[in-house]
Amino acid sequence: MTSTEAGHGIGVGGSRHDTLAGAEERTVTTDDGATLAVTVAPGTADTTDTAVTTGTAGTAGPTVVFAHGWTNNRSVWLPVAREVAAAGHPVVLYDQRGHGASTLGTEALGIERLGDDLAQLVEQLDLRGVVLVGHSMGGFTVMSFACRHRDLLASRVRGMALVSTAAHGLSMGRMTPLAARLLRSRTVDRVVRARSGLVFTRRVLGRRPLPQHVRSTREMYLATPAEVRAGYFATFGGMDLRTCLAVVDVPTAVVVGARDTLTRPRLGQVIAETIPGARYEVLPDAGHMLPFERTAEVVAEVLSLAR
Length: 307
Description:
alpha/beta, Rossmann fold, 9 strands, disordered N terminus
């Protein structure tokens, strides 16, 4: 398995209009045949190839790896990644399997597989001394990595930022199969595509969101295949990572929006109470899309861990 150059662009909704300075497009091929579309960009403190890929050479700061959420893609992290790169840290953004420009492999969708994908990305790009940042399902990914790959966590990770996420408590009980069917429904897609879909999407964000953030959130949802949406959703209810997180021993920050209706603030608080020494911050008036809504605060948490 190797990393190779890729022709995929990065941008909200999959377009190429929004990029990172000096970015290089690559792919990582997983052990079950999925191809993950990856963007690697240098920190402005050092633009050498070695610093981009390892985050250890020259004067470049630690590399920061960003994992996005359910029905999003790597473009959701662009506002944060630009600021982190400008502070001197190489950044790595990737589309999770089935999202954006990444493909599905032969294994079933699941939280464990997401953690394994991240582990293989870290190994194939030979990333060391990294800060892992996960939003929503990307937080599930980072926590799954921490639980399943303790050797890599100990040897290659210097911190984790968990944004608008949960480690348990997402079950809808007997309503889960119905919700999964709705996520596959063309009717739901028609509603989201219609003008009224912006009202629907608006509820995911907090008080007074910017119109472009609402539009981008809707575009990413619609760009995610219905089977992928439903397939991941069906796995969320069974997730409970609390036991293994209790022995995680890397610096961790947990950041939540006070108005998050998808992963409620209390679920983030449980993560912070479970991981020894974790910091917990609640951002007033913010909803679920903190990379858009509260870019500056998320950047501050990431840079604090990177230092």
